[in-house]
Amino acid sequence: MGLPAEEKKKLYAQYRRLLLDGVVPFWLERGIDHEFGGVLSCMSDDGQVLSGDKFIWSQARSVWTFSALYNRIEPRPEFLAAARNSVRFLLAHGRDDRGRWVYHTDRQGRVLEGATSIGSDCFAIYGLSEYYRATRDELALSVARQTFDRVVRRIEEPDFNETMPYPMPPGWRNHGMPMIMTEVTHELGQTLGDDKLEALAGQYADRIMRHFVKPERKILLEFLAHDYQELPPPAGTFVMPGHAIESMWFVLHVARHRGDQDLIERAAEVIRWHLEYAWDDEFGGLLLSRDINGGEPFLPHSQMKPWWPHVEALYATLLAYELTGQDWCLAWYKKVADWSWAHFPMPNCGEWYQRLTREGKPTSEVIALPVKDPFHLPRGAILIAQLMAGQPGGKAVR
Fold it and tell me: What is the pLDDT of residue 393?
């Protein structure tokens, strides 16, 4: 299974070039806050800073990206310096006095919104774990492990509601929790070589496949009741295909690690369902969300086409092909890649637009958070380059 060597070389070169000639210079020149630390991610597509406010999960994501560039693409000192710059901001300003990661600070690090999003905690684990691989910084690892232990407990507590930017009513479960914990737990397990963490990652993956995936309807639901029963519309009929696709490559990472071919095949099929479900036959590209009953989707902006579902689909289809050898994976990769490379790259810049209208035109309309952070696009490019170089599982591409 897998692409021919020459095709892998071409894709490796393409995505490495996107990183090193486009995305990375953009962020090193426009995004690093040299005065107060971290990144300036409340910006327009072309890099104009609109606000100095800092959402903590964007800061943590930047740690992952710059650390992964150092670990997996090329060990350049400027990558490690950028990661360290964000780590210093996070450790100085990111947590409250109970050790919970806050949601939103000003440029200097003064808290504007407290611990309202467990996503801040999860991305802190993700970023600090990758940073530890580069530096063996024991403080970073200790904070990651302490945070992880708290998150594992907190998300199971009856009053858990730290789900901003989309607040969740009591009595609901959202797919996003086992989804992000599948990848975060697996990556921390890879960092530490910890089989217990790998087993826990498998439990989160199995929770997704057992409860949120609905094979009879070929769909993954985003919201369920606390007992895993389905909710009434519109929340109970809401589907976010890009989220489902991203979730499934998280599951593929776990399945690859444990050599579970059945899970690989099932997760790959879920990717296929959601590519077919999200594709816009009129204008091309992947729609952000849909309602399985044909009604108005539960969350807004359903017709928009952000960069992140497309980037997740690019990596997911290539990974699925490497693991299954099924031809549909390459056909869908080409379909998504052709549309994405025709619409997202910004002229004379090297970065991509982060959101487009249904017709494929750039828009400044905000979805969820007013940020453009260095994450989905560079992460996807890093992982594709790593996959094409034959270096799975967090090993450096050197």
Answer: 55
Tell me the per-residue pLDDT of 59-84, one tens digit each, with 9 for 90 and over: 999 999 999 999 999 999 999 999 99
Please tell me the distance from the alpha carbon of residue 89 to that of residue 91, in angstroms, as a whole number.
6
- Determine contact, residues 263/251, Cβ cutoff 8 Å: yes
The token pair at 3 is 């692409």
Buried/exposed 349-380: b ≥16 CB within 10 Å, e otherwise:
ebbbbbbbebebeebeeebebebbbbbbbbbb
The structure tokens listed for 397 are: 């591409």
354 to 6, 51, 267: CA distances (angstroms) = 30, 17, 27
Q: In whole angstroms, give the CA distance from residue 341 to residue 377.
A: 12
Backbone angles phi, psi at 166, to 5 degrees: -115, 95
Report helix angle 118-135 to 56-68, nearest 10. 30
Max CA separation in the chain (angstroms): 54
Number of C-beta neighbours around residue 101 at 10 A: 28
Say if CB 63 and CB 113 are below 8 A apart. Answer: no
End-to-end Cα separation, the chain, in angstroms? 24
The residue behind tokens 């509601």 is: 161
Whole-angstrom distance, CA of residue 113 vs CA of residue 99: 15
| Chain segment 265-315, per-residue pLDDT in tens | 999 999 999 999 999 999 999 999 999 999 999 988 999 999 999 999 999
Answer yes or no: do 194 and 262 share one domain: yes
What is the C-alpha separation between 275 and 273, in angstroms, rounded? 6
Query: What pLDDT, on a 0 to 100 scale, did the predictor assign at position 159?
Result: 87
Q: What is the CATH number of the domain that holds 261?
A: 1.50.10.10
3-state secondary structure of 359: coil
Domain that holds residue 129: 1-165+369-388
Residue 35 belongs to some domain of the structure: yes
